[in-house]
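During the reporting period the student researcher (J.K.) took over the structure-prediction task from the postdoctoral fellow and processed the backlog of single-chain submissions. One of the processed entries is reproduced below for the supervisory committee.
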Amino acid sequence: MVDITLVLLYNRVVDLNIKMDNQQRVGAVIVAAGSSRRMGGVDKVLALLGGKPILAWVVDAFQRCNPIDQIVVVLSEQNLERGQQLVAEQGWSKVIDVCAGGRRRQDSVAAGLRRLSNCDWVVIHDGARPLVTVDLINRGLEAARETGAAVAAVPVADTIKMAGDDRIVHQTPPRQNLWAVQTPQVFGIKIITEAYSGANGDVTDDASLVEQLGYRVKVYMGSYDNIKITTPDDLALAEVLWRKYEQ
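J.K. obtained the following C-alpha cells:
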C-alpha cells in the first residue's frame, strides 16, 4: 500500500521545484461559460458532484497547485453572481476575477486572458473537467518549458475512420499517432496572446491557434479520468470516477 504521507510530500516537493526553477508568474484561466444545451436543462458547471459544484472541484485543484499565482474564472452572464458567491464561500485566495465570457469558447478565453496581471505563463482549463489534478497541472507546466506550449492528451483507444459528407471512408489513420486532446493547455503568455490577437474562425481548442502560427506544441500524458461533462451520462460517469478516488 502506498503511504499517503509520502505521496503528499512528493507532490509538495514537485510544486516547490517548479517554483524554485522558474520564478516566473503563472496564471490560470478556467473557462466555464458554455450553454450546457446538451445537459437537459441542468447547468453543468453548477451541477453537483460528490455534493459540490463541478466548478468548485476545478477551482480547488488550481487553488492547491503551488505554481499557480492567480486564477480568472470565466462564466456565462447568468452565472456571474453565483460564481462570485462561490469564491467568497470557498475562500479561493488566488481568484482575482470572475468575468463574463463570449459567444464562442475562444471569446471566453480571450476575456479571461485580458484579466490576468503580469503573468509569464498561463494554464487554460475547461470548467467542465472536474477531475483535473494538481499533478496534471504541474506536468503541463513542466512540458511547456520545452516548446512554450503543451497540451494534455491521451492516446486514442479506438480505430478512427475519416469519412466525407457521404459517409464513405476515405482513410484510416494509424492509431498510434492519434491523441485525444484535453485540458489543461499551457502556454507562454506571449505565444497565446499573439495567437488570440490574430484568431480567425472557430477553433475547438487553444492549441489550434498556436499551431496556426507555426509554434511547436508538446503533447503530455493526460488522464482517461479527466473527462469533460457534456451530457447527463458524463455526469453519471464522473460520479463513478470520483467515488474511485475517494475510496
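The committee noted the following: The domain at 4-246 is CATH 3.90.550.10 (Spore Coat Polysaccharide Biosynthesis Protein SpsA; Chain A).
J.K. will present the remaining backlog at the next meeting.
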